[in-house]
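Cont'd.
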Amino acid sequence: MNPPETVRDIRDTVRGRSRSASEVCRIALDRLDAVEPSLHAFNTITRERAIARAAEIDGAFDRWRDRPLVGVPIALKDNLCTKGVRTTASSRMLETYVPPYDATVVSKLDAAGAIVIGKTNCDEFSMGSSNENSAFGPVHNPWALDRIPGGTSGGSAATVAAAITPLALGSDTGGSIRQPAAMCGVVGLKPTYGRVSRYGLIAFGSSLDQIGPLTRTVHDAALTLGVIAGADEADATSVPEAVPDFAAALTGDIRGARVGVPARLIEQGVDPEVAGAFEASLATLVSRGATLVDMDLPHARYATAVYYLVATAEASSNLARYDGVRYGYRDEGGRDSLHTMYARTRERGFGPEVKRRIMLGTYVLSAGYYEAYYLKAQQVRTLILRDYERAFEHVDVVAMPTSPTPAFKLGERVADPLQMYLADVFTVSANLAGLPAISVPCGFTRGQLPIGLQLTGRRFDETTLLRIADAYERDTDWWKQAPAL
Amino acid sequence: MLAFAMAVFTREQVHAVARLANLELDETEIELFARQLGDILAYADEVQKVDTSGIPPTASVLTRYPADRADQIRPSLSPQEALANAPDPAPDSQAKSGALFRVPRVIG
């Protein structure tokens, strides 16, 4: 069986006119119709718009031929605003919200010739690690339908894994691109904080959130990053850093690259099959000419605690805007007074995990606790950042498993939020430090569940990160495998 | 050092925080959150073990910011677009000052 098509494969066939954009679009929609009943990966399918858009590209092909993603069907996480297309963040609060504008990344993908076929399911307001916090029901892992796809960009990961589209965008606040990528056996890239405009991304933790691609190959992630990266005056935290040709830097040559391995951090709590696949992936990197460097990130063990203090504080502030006045759900029971309306709207519009995090964030920001929790967490965040800065004096990337376990069963951890949070132990520190990080497929368990290798790079040095990840991918064929669906 | 042996969350604390957060929790949620928030905070208390004397806090990892832009009037959403998602928009004809978001009574 041939491996599923990549972004590059599809673009090249459309560009070479061996297939029209309309034909490719129809194939993607047919595949979606066939597998969506099993996966529940989409909140909204934009069938008519996609077909019209493909026809538009075919009808004015000379104008579109040279665009980097011409004719490529894509999916967008449902927390990215799309003008005229419902954008829910998988929340009752925004169930009928239709944005009057496009997120910057959406405009850029449009201009690159991509065709959006729908909005993918995710955890409500991107809070979760399993996609089970969606108000519209969970996504199923294409490799094992009784298991989670990972979260929060679970619908995007499942879409790429099930070969509906070769590219989906996700967002990553504490691992929400990388962890589902690992659990669904695809590539997931979180760019450097500031690399990609967040304008039009429904905010969760504003100092941590970053948009990035989920793809089958590192090349496709590099290609997509080149399209969506760059400073944007609509996002004051996007940085005017030069955007190199990321795909052109994938030479396969990593001789002399130094790969840091924080052995002490990963010696505990890692599933033995994950640990085995991780060890084997290091050996592959060495066989390509990389050197392993033993290193330590002494404060990274506090990252999960720091993350859940910082992220919930930012969330409690960001989600204060959902008050039933300007957009979204309003509870009609609270007609008598403004305060009752606010409180009932928020009680009924938000799901349990979102309320839990708003409560935690409100508490850690409240008088008497601010210094002990929020400020303290921000100080430890500085130490985590410094650990990485020190490490990058001696290494080019840091390698870890993406997730300590493969995908768990649906429902297994729902009752215990703290257990759920601990699934993020290896991913959150890249967000706290603002660093680029990627997950690439690095094996399967005996039960055929995908395992991911995570590499973390220097700030704004996605080039080195992607080159090493791509070199690894060239010597493996995990990425070529597809679930029997 | 602060004492953090008491990461237990009382029902009263849950009530007080819910009021600050504008959330009207039901009885089941109050019970559940008291327990769960207590557990999570007990775990988060790990950060207290770290010596952070003299360490500045990090609120943002950005080390450079784009320059301020000129303060010029530019096109923005029309009142109709801005009101399109409102649960209770006031029609233009009723408001002398233009389109409005309507809310329940605030005082009296």
